[in-house]
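tool_call: predict_structure(chain=1)
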Amino acid sequence: MKKWLFFWTILVLTLFAGIYLIIPSTIEITSSKIANTSDNGTQRYLLDQANWKIWWNYTHPSKVSNTSGGFTMNEDKYTLTSLFYKSADITITHKNQVITSKVVIIPVTQDSTGIEWKCSLTPGYNPLNRINAYLEARKIKKNIDLILTDLSAFLSKLENVYGIHIERTNLKDTLFVTTKSIAKDKPSLNQIYGLIKNIQSYITKKGIPQSGNPIYNITQLEDDQYQLMAGVPVNQNIPDADGYSTKFMVKGSFMVTEVLGGDSSVNRAYRSLQQYFQDFRKTSMAMNFNMLVTDRQLQTDSSKWITKLYYPVY
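tool_result:
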């Protein structure tokens, strides 16, 4: 009988010792993901809780919801509480526990960003509490993994972050007949097409056909005036004369987005493209321009207008 008692005592002590060895006094919970985007884009969507609703249910719509003052994942509630440089504290309410966690944005490359989320549990000395804390820690980590999976998948698509499709390409037509005009007010659609039609009439007189879509650029000058430049692509050189000049544009590399809609849609896309350049720290040394795919004077429905925005990139 004493031998059995001794055996069970040793077994229980060994079990408890194993619990203390395997489950530490502080249980660290860590989750991390890589998003194929810039650290600035990540910061806008992760460190502003107003933007959480945009990506929170991106890949798990049936498992997440937002509530007053926070968002939930499998009954755990998350609230952004403190902001720092490239990091934030997020309060996690798990059952009856309130846990302070920290999420950190880590720039990896120009177009790759790491996101690390950490928190910890202190279960105390009771071995049963340690086992329970370990099991709860696994649930907390699983939920955090799901959230970061949603965020990473969302951020890895440029269309989600900037609201437009952006691609890198080169210029098909490289020879343009161009001309300019200066005005006190921002040029209207009629003025843009007026300048384009002047170029078209000029090349027609020279017996040279138009080889592609016209382009234009509007630049605000320092003296509160606007410069309008327009160009029409051709397939052969024309000597400069009468205010018209032939410009050779390098095929180069351009970030391009195609916009469907009128001026408001174009302006939104323009701001998004500027944000993209800022986020990815890209430099555009040459002039950007708009390409008119749809003839707006023939198609009166602005919702059907197609415009391509070209930004040279190095």
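agent: Residues 11-21 have pLDDT under 50 and may be disordered. Proceeding to next step.
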